[in-house]
Design goal:
Elements lengths: L9 H7 L1 H15 L16 H6 L1 H19 L8 H13 L6 H17 L5 H23 L1
Helix pairs in contact: 2-6, 5-7, 6-7
The structure holds protoporphyrin IX containing FE (HEM).
Protoporphyrin IX containing FE binds next to α4, α5 and α6.
Length: 147
């Protein structure tokens, strides 16, 4: 797969706008499917979606997602080296009741966040490079389901 160098906008973006990433990514995800919120077992009660988004458990998970994406970007030339980790991560998600189809919504939210953050720098080849990378990650996670 030719990811190109375009995915490398990631590291500066990650450093520059963590707050923005959390906001767009999570806001968009629960706009796409509010029922996903129930999969996070909050210790604090959530009066509204906004309350949930601000809860520490949820912010923690966004950071976890970002660390996985960061690992994938850092290992673009050798994504196979993440295979065991991702397979295991898939198993953990199956155990907490996540469906593989929901990963597509996370991907959509990720692209939405990039689009909002990059403005005109968000081009068709950039979008494609991200889709390629994210598809490899999700495919590896989804293999955790079959066994
Ligand atoms: C853990 C939900 C997608 C990365 C978890 C947990 C839940 C969860 C309930 C356990 C509690 C916690 O650690 O916060 C979901 C839902 C998803 C989703 C509902 C999508 C609809 C993803 C994606 C990634 C990811 C796409 C990475 C690309 C992680 C990591 C952990 C985790 C790294 C910690 C696993 C560990 O403890 O070893 N997720 N997740 N999640 N999730 Fe997700």
């Amino acid at each position: 797969i030719d990811f190109g160098v375009r995915v490398n906008v990631w590291q500066p973006l990650l450093r520059a706008c963590t707050f923005r990433i959390v906001w767009y990514l999570s806001g968009r995800l629960f706009e796409l499917d509010p029922t996903l919120l129930t999969l996070f077992h909050y210790t604090t009660s959530c009066g509204s979606t906004q309350d949930c988004l601000a809860s520490p458990e949820f912010l923690d998970h966004v950071t976890k997602v970002m660390l996985v994406i960061d690992a994938a970007v850092s290992n673009l030339d050798d994504l196979l080296s993440l295979e065991d980790f991702l397979l295991n991560l898939g198993r953990k998600h199956q155990a907490v009741g996540v469906h593989t189809q929901s990963f597509a919504l996370v991907g959509e939210s990720l692209l939405y966040m990039l689009q909002c953050s990059l403005g005109p720098a968000y081009t068709a080849p950039l979008r494609q490079a991200w889709l390629n990378m994210y598809s490899v990650v999700v495919a590896a996670m989804s293999r955790g389901w079959a066994e």
